[in-house]
Amino acid sequence: MDYLNAFLCGGLLCAVGQIIIDKTKLTPARILTGYVVAGVFLQAVGIYQHLVDWGGAGATVPLTGFGYTLAKGVEKAVAEKGLIGAMTGGLSATAGGIAAAVVFALIAALLCKPGDKR
After folding, report:
1. Does the residue 14 lie in any domain?
2. How many domains does the chain have?
3. 27, pLDDT greater than 80
4. Residue 118, domain member (yes or no)
């Protein structure tokens, strides 16, 4: 059942993103940014944790999950370190994902031949 919930949750988030792309003139960059901000906002008001509990990876892998992780990191760091945690918590919580993205981008750049699209 966990796999089905993850599929439904992630699929719903992706379907909403596709509808936004199709029905608005928003650029993909603005939509992606909106998803991250939505994840932060929904975690701040206490809704996103319920979605994570139900959808698992379907809620934590999309960009809303990145926003959720940022908010959780800030919340934890503020509780431990005070106000300075607001500056350091988000980066500490997401450092592994950011590092993985950089490493895989480097590997892709080394393995693929760049060229003009024609």
Report:
1. yes
2. 1
3. yes
4. no
In a domain, 89, yes or no: yes
Convert the pLDDT of each residue in 42-62 to its tens digit. Answer: 999 999 999 999 999 999 988
pLDDT reading at 115 higher than 80:
no
Q: What is the pTM of this model?
A: 0.79
In a domain, 116, yes or no: no
Residue ranges making up the domain that contains 14: 2-111
pLDDT of 10: 93
In total, the chain counts a number of residues equal to: 118
Listing DSSP states for the chain in one string gives -HHHHHHHHHHHHHHHHHHHHHHS---HHHHHHHHHHHHHHHHHTT-HHHHHHHHTHHHHSSHHHHHHHHHHHHHHHHHHHGGGHHHHHHHHHHHHHHHHHHHHHHHHHHHS------
Q: Which residue has the tokens 């590997």?
A: 107
